[in-house]
Amino acid sequence: GLDQRLTLGAELEAQRDERSRHDNLFGARGARTLHQQEQARSAGAFLQNELNLGERLRASVGVRQDHLRLDVDDRRLDDGDLSGSRKLDETHYSAALGYRLDPHQQLYARLASSFESPTINELANPAGGGFNPALGAAQALNREIGIKGEWPALRYELALFRIDLEDELVPYSVAGQSGRTYYRNAGRSRREGVELGLHWQIDPHWRLSGAWSYSDFRFRDYQASGQDYSGNALAGVPRQRLFGELAYEKARWYAAANLDARSHAYAEDANRVRVAGNALVNLRLGLRIDAGAQRLEPWIGIDNLFGREHFDNLRLNDANGRFFEPGPGRTLLAGVRAEF
Which of 37, 81, 101, 138 is buried deepest, with most CB atoms within 10 A? Predict the structure, then answer.
């Protein structure tokens, strides 16, 4: 007797790669060290039911079953046949409740389990070809509560979350194998945090939007290479991050300025190499030109307006200590977008 919507679905995916690897002799291609064919096939089925429990209360429950098979066929046999396969069968669930406070605001809570399978690249074997036999899928239990609201000129969302993980996938490298990344499982870890999002149309011309997050991501039980990293922060994750944008639009013109700021992070699991935080300011200016059913939108922009030095990417847990990849300085961009 309850109003409800039942959804049943299925997914099929397949991928095949031919992969070769050669020695790098100061920029020249050397002897081939790996040659293999890799295949990934997955099948998933899910069932979800959304039902109204009253005028203000709505619930959702779901279950999903996944089957994943990964195969590698070694074509370079001079060091033995390193072919292999991996199978993963996983069942996971989700449940959510939403309570409407008024026509514009809603409280919600979610509980769900999930898993993350290593990709074929992540399954690379540090001992040679084939798959890494020690690497498994990450398992997670997700909890989230929050409130969100929407009016004609204002939208907001505030969420608190906690994720308990087992066997989180952590990147690392091996000394003497520069540029190659491998993965290992990290025992148990926990991710806790707060996320806040805002979109405000101040008046017909001015718009303010932003997002802020606070992330306390830590290992709870993790040992690797004879070291105990329990209690340390996950590498590469800043504790706080803020994005804000102020935009102005009138007639066919628009302009926007945004700020992307983040606090410090760590470059490796031991938390001995601290990466400084940074704040970058970017500008955009554009014009929309309508010609019948077509639209042209030329624009110009400046990224990193103040030319701040910053790191664009981190090579986490690099065995050779080369963690940092510098980001570009002040950059002028221009482009045009066309719609027909």
Answer: 138
Looking at residue 136, the DSSP 8-state letter turns out to be -
Residues near 49 by beta carbon (within 8 Å), at least 6 away in sequence: 4, 5, 6, 7, 60, 61, 62
Quote the DSSP letter at residue 318: -
DSSP string for residues in 246-305: EEEEETTEEEEEEEEEE--EESSTT--SEEPPEEEEEEEEEE-EEETTEEEEEEEEEEST
Instruction: State the first-to-last Cα distance of the chain, in angstroms, to the nearest integer.
Output: 48
DSSP state of 234: P
Residue 152 carries which DSSP code?
S
Q: Which two tokens stand for residue 210?
A: 């932003």
132-162 exposure pattern, b = at least 16 Cβ within 10 A, e = fewer: beebbbbbbebebebebeeeeeebebebebe
Q: What does the buried/exposed string (b/e) look like for 3-40 if buried means 16 or more CB atoms within 10 Å of the residue's CB?
A: eeeeeeeeeeeeeeeeeeeeeeeeeeeeeeebbbebeb
Q: What is the 3-state secondary structure (H, E, C) of 184-219?
A: EECCEEEEEEEEEEEEEECCCCEEEEEEEEEEEEEE
Average pLDDT over residues 3-31: 92
Give the range among 8-12, 62-66, 175-179, 228-232 with minimum mean pLDDT. 175-179
The mean of the pLDDT values for the chain is 94
**Six token digits for residue 87:** 């199978």
pLDDT of the residue at 178:
65
pLDDT of 140 above 70: yes
Pull the structure tokens for residue 42. 């997955």
pLDDT at 248: 98
Model confidence pTM above 0.85: yes
| Tens digits of residue pLDDT in 57-106 | 999 999 999 999 999 888 887 777 878 888 999 999 999 999 999 999 99
C-alpha distances (whole Å) from 12 to each of 76, 158, 238 are 30, 35, 36
